[in-house]
Amino acid sequence: MQLLDVEEIEEEPPEECAQMHPPNLGFTEDHRWLSMAQKDRMASPVDVIVVGAGNRGETYSHFASLQPQRMRVIGVADPRKFAREKLQKQHRIADVNVFADWRGIVQREKFADAVFICTPDRQHKNPAVALAKKGYHILLEKPMAVTAEDCTEIVRTCIQNGVMLTVCHVLRYDPVIHKIKVLMDSGAIGDPVHIQHLEPVGFFHFAHSFVRGNWRNEAESSFALLAKSCHDIDLIHHWAGGRRCLKVSSFGSLSHFRKEKRPPGAADRCLDCPVEESCPYSARKIYLDRVKQGCVGWPVSVICSSSLPDIESVTEALKSGPYGRCVYQCDNDVCTNQVVNMEFEGGLTAAFSMVAFTEEICKRRTTIYGSKGELSCDGHEIRVFDFLTGRATKHTAETYAPGAFGMGGHGGADYQLVEAFISAVASGDASFIRSGPEETLLSHKLVFEAERSRLESKVVFCGTDQD
Ligand SMILES: NC(=O)c1ccc[n+]([C@@H]2O[C@H](COP(=O)([O-])OP(=O)(O)OC[C@H]3O[C@@H](n4cnc5c(N)ncnc54)[C@H](O)[C@@H]3O)[C@@H](O)[C@H]2O)c1
Fold first, then answer.
1. Res 9 pLDDT > 70
2. Which atom of ligand 1 approaches the CA of 227 most closely?
3. In whole numbers, what is the pLDDT of the chain averaged over residues?
4. Rounded to the nearest whole angstrom, what is the distance from the C-alpha of residue 124 to the centroid of ligand 1?
5. Where is the Gfo/Idh/MocA-like oxidoreductase N-terminal domain (predicted)?
6. Calculated CA dihedral for residues 85, 71, 145, 438, nearest 10 degrees
7. Higher pLDDT, 305 or 17
8. 232 CB less than 6 Å from ligand 1?
9. Whose CA is closest to 140, among 111, 165, 104, 113?
């Protein structure tokens, strides 16, 4: 047997090629050969209303600025004046199409092709159901909703009303992650036997979002596995390739970010804290030091909800807002670490870990063990080791991440997601969508079943209980 001494790099087509044929994202169908009627429909831009002009809504709407011939933002709804006026200005939206609440859109005759629903987790179901009934195609942020029943209702309503639904499982549009499935389907590792997948959330990212921020408290948003890791369970479910999950078990808890871990002498707010210097979670380090260095993107941009971030507004936000609080004195209750074990039809097993306390931020690591080889991915590169030849090959995929999407755009996947949705709406061809209703509903149900296992300390036999 030849020893591991040869490495081959297989490249995806270069960027200009991807741009020439933007819809060809590696689906089984080749969208370069669209019918004339489809091409005609794709010639006019898709009109979109953004519901929730926060971090995600604004990011996705950049597509209109980059591709004005393909998409226009013609409406916005957000109770925050600053947020809706910012989007209105960016896209020159007529006053009549600016709303303080999504219900304003429902009261009007349908006036756009599609809506982007980017409201907080607990405010997905009602606008999704109401706007599907009005006939809008829907790009819906994850999680679809916070109960399995509500997720089912969204899917049912979209199907009944003949509207397309794309759930923002952005990783499904990441070219490297997509390549994993392409390699598996080509038989590169034989029959998959075990999937190991890690989501390292990142120590300051976790403190920002899940201790001080929007996803810290289950009653206000959702449990961590749904809020953070529905992406990962969806990927595992996707890699399992249509095999049904039979059993799931899960363990996890909130560690460290608890009142009893508060260092002696710590103050309630980092700006007043005498021991702040020795704390890696200090808000001064996470936000103020960044803005002093001129970094005003995420996470700094999130903490000034009614103004642009600068030293004054960030200091004020840390003095009075939620992001200046001591991480040991917050009302957080979501898990910092959770494991999920799954058994699929045919004996395929999967083990997933989510961990808060990591250096890497969301740079997932995956190893898939198959009967003929082993595939591993660090988020940038895939390595396949072939048991027969003893050779390893490396695979990459070109990622197109235009400026405005950039680093905050999940390495270009946000852009690809919007592009797929816009292509689907423009052409009337739902096969552009990778994260459509039925498959996403199944993976969301798996998340609810895993969480029930954790809460009830039992193995859940999938599809047999109330979820
Ligand atoms: N796909 C991903 O990878 C990803 C990443 C981050 C967040 N998310 C999800 O995206 C959603 C939005 O997150 P975000 O970070 O943009 O939050 P955000 O708080 O920045 O934005 C939410 C916006 O919705 C607005 N809103 C609240 N009630 C509304 C109403 N009744 N009508 C219209 N707008 C309303 C808020 O004012 C706010 O501007 C959440 O569900 C979140 O879990 C997804």
1. no
2. 43
3. 90
4. 9
5. 47-168
6. 180
7. 305
8. no
9. 165
The domain segmentation of the chain, as residue ranges, is 34-170+417-430, 259-324
Across 62-86, average pLDDT: 96
Q: Count CB atoms within 10 A of the CB of residue 452.
A: 17
pLDDT of residue 85: 97
Closest to 64 in 3D by CA, of 421, 381, 308 = 421
**pLDDT tens figures, 332-365:** 999 999 999 999 999 999 999 999 999 999 999 9
Per-residue confidence (pLDDT) for residue 433, from 0 to 100: 97
User: What architecture does CATH give domain 34-170+417-430?
Assistant: 3-Layer(aba) Sandwich (3.40)
Handedness of CA 432, 437, 439, 445 (dihedral sign): positive
- In whole angstroms, how far apart are CA 237 and each of 125, 231, 441, 443? 23, 10, 11, 6
- Verify whether ligand 1 is closer than 6 Å to residue 56 (CB atom): yes
Phi/psi of residue 283, nearest 5 degrees: -65, -30
Dihedral sign for Cα atoms in the order 100, 102, 107, 111: positive
> 80 CB under 6 A from ligand 1?
yes
Q: Which H or E run includes 100? A: none
Residue 346 beta carbon below 6 angstroms from any ligand 1 atom: no
